[in-house]
Amino acid sequence: MASGGAQYRMKVALYYPWVYLTGGPERIIVQLTAGSRHEWTIFTNHYEPEATFPEMRQLEVIELPRVSVRRSFHDVAVAAWRIARQKLPLEGYDALVVLSEGLGDFATFRNHDLPIICLCLTPLRAAFDPYYQCGYLAMHRDRPWSRLALGAAGAAFRTADRLAWKRYERVLAISGEVRRRVLRGRLCPEGKIELLRPGIDPARLTPGALYEKTFLIPGRIMWTKNIELGIDAFRLLAGRRPDLKDYRLIIAGIVDKKSRSYAARLRARADGCPGIVFIESPSDRELLSLYQSACAVVYPPFNEDWGLVPLEAMACGKPVIALNRGGPVETVVDGETGFLADPAPEAFADAMERLADDPELPRRMGARGRQRALRFQWKDFCEGLDGCLDRVVNGRQLAA
Q1: 186 class by beta-carbon count within 10 Å (0-12 exposed, 13-18 middle, 19+ buried)
Q2: Can you say whether the dihedral through the CA atoms of 57, 125, 232, 213 is positive or negative?
Q3: Has this prediction a pTM greater than 0.85?
Q4: pLDDT tens-digit profile of 282-327?
Q5: How many other C-beta atoms are found inside a 10 Å radius of the C-beta of residue 38?
């Protein structure tokens, strides 16, 4: 073991309930384990190696008894109960890191012999994010039963979650938005929280010379991404500017089983507009090519936790049109690296129109965006987490 302040290679366990997509959490796991100086084991209750990043297959991933990835009240309750009751095989490990979006917090109840760090992607949005709650109720037509069930389940979860959070020795919030959610939810005192923002790999994400007549919406195709806004904005633009008929809107991302009905609704919404194209499950190489050839990236999630997409777009030298709320406010500089727009199709269509009318504007904004993105890199993220582990583990040893 190390003495106080010394650095050494630790054996660290990371718990995340579901590893089955090519999304932000899985990207964080891949980048963290590659860039950290420590030795990592990934514990999860649902692992689908064929559906996530290929790099994940090179890691030590231990699948525990499975929980469902469905998000019904019943399935979430069953998953929470199983996670809260399970004992992880942590003998020989120096620390536990919980990659938290909500249910993962419950792993602290029976696994607190080691120092535990929360790498917080967000507190559970159904319980702590009013924009998520409004979107959920709108999707269910604001039925009284849905409102009652969401209110009761949210209250019960908040009570249990505050108990689980007492086990965390340190909390690393991935954005100022997430930090505010933690504090509003009274999950932990302000002094326990540090900011640790995920980033980009500037060697992998390089600017492209092309600025084709394409607006790109990349990332997971699910209801929280608010892709309807991008579709409605593009249709509005196409209707009022027939001279821009050569422009396309490409929607490219993965669709998991629970989002199939949402994707079908999006296709129906885009019906009759030939400029809207869907590309499901693009590879990393295909997605990079789309970034590098687009005129701009459209990012309409209604209250994103952080958002890797705007950073990836700017790293590729592309301006970003994002909702003026949540994580993108911390990365996109309005009027310089893109536009922060109100949550209305008219506002997004206006931004698209400005970029289409001035071919040099995307290039100027893209160049500034590249410099902006370089401020957020994976190497800094990994060093920050390693440093936090050093302080927490050494502090526990000195206090023993």
Answers
A1: exposed
A2: negative
A3: yes
A4: 999 999 999 999 999 999 999 999 999 999 999 999 999 999 999 9
A5: 20
Q: Residues 311, 314, 316, 318: what is their CA dihedral angle, to the nearest 10 degrees?
A: 140
Cβ neighbours, 10 Å, residue 239? 10
Q: Which amino acid is at 321?
A: I
CB atoms within 10 A of CB 141: 7
Q: Point out which residues pair with 40 in neighbouring strands.
A: 12
pLDDT of residue 306: 98
**Closest by Cα among 238, 380, 225 to 310:** 225
| Closest to 237 measured CA to CA, from 321, 354, 361 | 354
Residues 32-53: pLDDT tens digits? 999 999 999 999 999 999 999 9
Dihedral angle, C-alpha 217, 223, 224, 225, nearest 10 ° = 0
Residues with Cβ < 8 Å from 276, sequence gap 6 or more? Answer: 231, 234, 235, 248, 249, 251, 270
Decide: residue 237, CB within 10 A, 0-12 exposed, 13-18 middle, 19+ buried. buried
State the residue for tokens 């592309």: 318
Closest CA to 319 of 333, 330, 329, 306: 333
Token reading at 21: 């997509």
Percent of the chain topping pLDDT 70: 98
Cβ-contact 6, 389 below 8 angstroms: no
What is the residue whose two structure tokens read 């992998």?
A: 204
Spatial CA neighbour of 131 closest among 181, 198, 174, 175 = 181
Report the distance separating Cα 305 and Cα 85, nearest Å. Answer: 28
What is d(CA 363, CA 319) in angstroms, rounded to the nearest whole number? 8
